[in-house]
Amino acid sequence: MKIQNVLVTGGGGFLGKAIVKKLVEKKLAVTSFSRNF
Predict the structure, then answer these.
(1) What pTM was computed for the model?
(2) pLDDT truncated to tens, each residue of the chain (37 aa)?
């Protein structure tokens, strides 16, 4: 199975955090960019 990479912009915001959490639960490789970190 090929590893799927996902880039999330705004990952430190309210919705971004929830999206990143769900993607990680699905075993995806997540990179998150945010001004809030």
Answers:
(1) 0.78
(2) 788 999 999 988 899 999 999 999 999 999 999 886 5
